[in-house]
Amino acid sequence: MGAHLLPLLLSLLAAAVAGKSAHLKLPLLRTHPFPPTPSQVLSSDASRLCSFNRRRARLPITSGASSGSGQYFVELHLGTPPQRLSLVADTGSDLVWAACSACRNCSTRLPHSAFFPRHSASFSAFHCFHPRCGLLTNPTRVPCNRTRLHSPCRYEFSYSDGSLTGGFFATETTSFNDSSGKAVRFKKVEFGCSFRSSGPSITGPSFSGAQGVLGLGRGPISLSTQLGRQLGNKFSYCLMDYTLAPTPRSYLVIGDGKDGAVVKTFTPLINNSFSSTFYYIGIESITVEEVKLPISPSVWTIDELGNGGTIVDSGTTLTFLAKPAYDGILTEFKRRIELPEPANLTSGFDLCINVSGGSKPRLPSLSFRFAGGAVFTPPAGNYFLDTAPDVKCLALQPVASPSGLSVIGNLM
């Protein structure tokens, strides 16, 4: 991608609540160059998508933590006095959790590898009989003693690769440094204090040094829901072109985030009673070079079992589309791109072009029209990925239809 590319601004209207102007603008950080190898991108995305499609069977949750690519992080401070942590921002899960240590006599110079609740005066674990404990989608099946004072709400979550994290569901004072550097503090933010974590998804190199996951889903315990009650029930994120030097900063905005210089468009969210976490949106049509593709509206529908539909997900890198839509785009692109010479296919990608030397083929435009009239026309660098020197491949993947889940990833 070149320096001319525009950032992606994606705004999600979480609820029709108006009248609040306050907002929280947080930098989204990266800890390593992006992306890793194409095979790593495909492998991690495929695993995540598989778990999404199985989620309705109440199988293990998956988070952006399980993806070794395309991760964005938010820095925050937990506790009193505050302890700095870095969490993976994930719109595909609800639980906010941080790695915790039970150390009682640790040095006052605390490392950033975990949160130390014993060093915080504001940490408070929920009792297992507390109504909020019942909001956890998969709490550990531990008998609850209603009379004991110290019977904390325990949870354990598993990930698609068998990784596990578990601990106590609690509240804590949480502060963020906004884009101006000002500390903004919130009391009694609900989060999981994980004393046990195992497996490559959340302890290996793919976790990139993060200490937990910042759940931003639509459920009642996600950070966007908790803070949204105070900040107008809206949030958005803006993912900037990662190839620019210096790399411009990406942002997560909770609240209205009013900016007169930015024109925003909105699309209503769709409810799926089988998957309350995800941000479902409606696709009305797709065009290539302003030519509308003949895609049946049924391709995008959610069936009576909750299958299908389209979500926006910060933890998936590539974009996955129902096969009829993918096939239509692929056919039209092959017809329109004047290939200078065939490029060897990068494994897992169906369309690759050779851009060596002076050969710079013009890449067709691609537009999505969403419900409500919003039109999204990303720059070509958002859907063509550099997979090897002088080789670009179409960064889209097909999913089985009619019941496959389409996912708009963070590269798009």
TrEMBL record:
| Record-annotated Peptidase A1 domain positions | 72-412
Q: Where is the active site?
A: D90, D313
Q: Name one GO molecular function term.
A: aspartic-type endopeptidase activity
**Which key words tag this protein in UniProt?**
Aspartyl protease, Glycoprotein, Hydrolase, Protease, Signal
Question: Secretion signal: which residues?
Answer: 1-18
Under Pfam families, the record lists: TAXi_C, TAXi_N
SUPFAM superfamilies registered for this protein in UniProt: Acid proteases
One GO-annotated biological process of the protein: proteolysis
Q: Which InterPro entries match?
A: Aspartic_peptidase_A1, Pepsin-like_plant, PEPTIDASE_A1, Peptidase_aspartic_dom_sf, Plant_Aspart_Prot_A1, TAXi_C, TAXi_N
Similarity comment text for this entry: Belongs to the peptidase A1 family.
Q: What is this protein called?
A: Peptidase A1 domain-containing protein
Organism taxonomic ancestry? Eukaryota, Viridiplantae, Streptophyta, Embryophyta, Tracheophyta
